[in-house]
Amino acid sequence: MIPQTKIIATVGPACLMPDILQKLVAAGVTIFRLNCSHIGPSDLPTVFKLVRELEAPEPFRTISVFLDLPGPKFRINQPEKPINLKESDEVTLKISSDKSAPTSLHLSALPNLTFLKEASKIVMDDGKIVLQVLQLVSDIEVKVTVIKGGEIKSRKGIDFVDATPPVPDITESDLVFLDLAKQLKPDAIAISFVRSAEQVRKIKRMLGQDAPLIISKIERREALDQIEEIVDESDGIMVARGDLALSLPLEKTPKVQRRLIELANDKAKFVIIATQMLSSMVTNPIPTRAEVTDVYHAVSQGADCVMLSDETAVGAHPVEAVSVMKKIIVEASSEFNFDNYKTRLKSLGTTSISDATAYAAAAACFKLGTKALVCCTTSGYSVRLVSRYRPAAPILGFTREPEVARKINFYWGANSVVANFAATSDREERDRAFNEIVYKLSLTPGDRVIILGGLQTFKIGSTSILEIREVE
Ligand code: PGA
Ligand code: MN
Q1: CATH architecture under which domain 341-470 falls
Q2: Atom of ligand 1 nearest to the CA of 276
Q3: Which terminus has fewer CB within 10 Å in the chain: N or C?
Q4: pLDDT at 442
Q5: What are the distances in angstroms from CA 6 to CA 31, 115, 413?
Q6: Average pLDDT over residues 61-65
Q7: Is the CB of 174 under 6 A from ligand 1?
Q8: pLDDT of 319-349, one tens digit each?
Q9: CATH architecture of the domain with range 6-72+169-335
Q10: How far does the centroid of ligand 2 lie from the alpha carbon of residue 394, in Å?
Q11: Judging by DSSP bridges, how do beta strands 305-308 and 6-10 pair with one another?
């Protein structure tokens, strides 16, 4: 059984072998993340192909893949051997590729440092090292003092906590991956460090028609300032807690997570909770109690997907991490409070015909205990609307396009059956869907199924028919 909240695994050296990838799928992964910060453009096509090949021809095994763009992540351009920084040390930070001066730290990919002010905070290596600006020496050089020391290794990330570096909406390296995406056709693309809805629009324009789903990674303070517009512009969001917790006071991240889940649920967009979910499993075979609780809460709050990062990319126990995650999801889903969830949805009153049909379908599921809720769908739109109401039966998209099936996979509780025929009428389409589901789910007389469709077969966004059928 595929869990209702989907499991995303990040691909990396720990799992990049066909047999391990297969095991991850068997353990419950349905979506893979290819992190372009770590997979170069020359390796990406090979890795992509390996993951695509996991898609099995038999039904109910749709495997989706998304590219996670690097975005403007700054890294220290330094040093051949690690530098040890001690508290109250004074060092300079300079934009240069010269690695010879041992007392300065070198940065690249930034035009200048004039956006920094006196007392600006700079963190390195995910917050392990903290620096504070003492003085701006020149446009490309600042003097800093060490607040929290540690060892700096080459290529570690550097974040500017309270200042915004001047970066273009689409970086050069993102452009390379976006070009590759046009050939590879991933199911979704995640934009890192999203700052504005306009940035999302620009990337969508570049991708053109038949574009992958767009996931906005919420990991900068600025994104929160126009979050409604960003969510409206995206298909889904990722609560990227790693960088988000560097951009905000750490203790504010749980509240932001809850708010973002609620907002996405409300707008029928999918939401992924990411980073450090089971991070102790990078080295240990079992997670901490706190991690188990974290995954449980993400599911009860209403996440569509939960993501594993280092746990599957570089961890010692990738398959175990997925198995543990699945067990927690199954447990949390069995206790999901549907009533609370529904009263929380703010936009319940403002419905279109399709949305009202989806709502009625979910309500009928609860009343009748149906075995499945089938959506005859061209674009996946009705699946998205139905998933938002968290019905008590598996949602099955019945679609002709494998690409649509893979996109459906990102939504809570939704799977697909790919139909290999073209129906000539809406009646025929629903009949075929019903027969196929009865067969695929081995339903027996008395079992009930809900089928959603539209009068105008293959017209997007025209769901208006709700049929409830009983197996004879
Ligand atoms: P990353 O994004 O793993 O690409 O940094 C997730 C996060 O920041 O939490
Ligand atoms: Mn990040």
Answers
A1: 3-Layer(aba) Sandwich (3.40)
A2: 9
A3: C
A4: 94
A5: 7, 40, 8
A6: 91
A7: no
A8: 999 999 999 999 999 999 888 898 888 877 7
A9: Alpha-Beta Barrel (3.20)
A10: 32
A11: parallel
